[in-house]
Amino acid sequence: MGKPVITVVGSINMDLVVAAAKRPEAGETILGEDFYTSPGGKGSNQAVAAARLGAEVHMIGRVGDDEFGSELLKFMEKENIFLNGVEPVPHSASGVAMITLADGDNSIIVYQGANKEATPDYIRKYESLIAKSDVVITQLEIPIESVEETARLCQKHQTKFILNPAPAADLSVDVLMKADFITPNQSERETLSKQVDFNQLLDKLIVTEGKDGVVYFENEAPRRISSHSVSTVDTTGAGDTFNGAFAYAIGMKKDVETACHFANAAAALSVQKLGAQAGMPTQDEVNEFLRNHGKK
């Protein structure tokens, strides 16, 4: 089959990343060891991941009319992402994520900025794009009501809808039930379990557990796919790589187990370089990795 058409409805941020030997305690100042800026945002990250794997990717989101916004648009253009659904917000700053790398993991504070203007009315402007997509994926760095509108439009047009409930937030049962797949990490799964009877979601759940791999459910029984042993440099964006790769595989009509193996491998490759998007692999790289690890 040809390229799957994937539309990402979500955030576009600039990442401000500092590496340190440890995380500071409250009131403590420490010296960092490295600093860099990098394109990010869960929406943009997932779009880049899917595009590098060969999907036709469309982005729906907002940037500010600032220098970060211009840089983010240029970067996505270089990744062959279609940007007709991205409009700058006048007199607004672009979203930023302040990321601390320490102790082999990351901590992140996100400022929404222009992402707040990805409103339900704005999403509706691009209904025709959602209608023609094979898969739509969204996250929770845009207004929750916009996520709900995306779910409604996907259901209306019978478009596969992947909900990545990150960062954790209160969600209606309605939007959860409209999703074809829900992809929380462990902490996000805990939040979901307080909002809805988990048994209603088992056939939709794909739980990413970092070094412990991925869990999906088959006939209500958990099935685990183990993680790959790799040299980890930066885990920022690993979950987004998984989601973009999972969306690509589902768009290619793969079954859930195959899609999880593919996405798990993509995420393992992504953590071996600094930056959310720097290590996101191509399809050839993922396929070679799977061959070398006993998967086709």
From TrEMBL:
Identify the PROSITE patterns for this entry.
PFKB_KINASES_2
The protein's enzyme class: transferase
The prosthetic group or cofactor this protein requires is: Mg(2+)
* Cofactor detail note: Requires a divalent cation, most likely magnesium in vivo, as an electrophilic catalyst to aid phosphoryl group transfer. It is the chelate of the metal and the nucleotide that is the actual substrate.
Q: State the pathway, as annotated in the record.
A: Carbohydrate metabolism; D-ribose degradation; D-ribose 5-phosphate from beta-D-ribopyranose: step 2/2
The molecular function GO annotations come to: ATP binding; metal ion binding; ribokinase activity
Main location (coarse class): cytoplasm
Per its database record, what is this protein's job? Answer: Catalyzes the phosphorylation of ribose at O-5 in a reaction requiring ATP and magnesium. The resulting D-ribose-5-phosphate can then be used either for sythesis of nucleotides, histidine, and tryptophan, or as a component of the pentose phosphate pathway.
Subunit (UniProt): Homodimer.
Fetch the NCBIfam families from UniProt.
D_ribokin_bact
| Name of the protein this chain belongs to | Ribokinase
Designated gene of the protein: rbsK
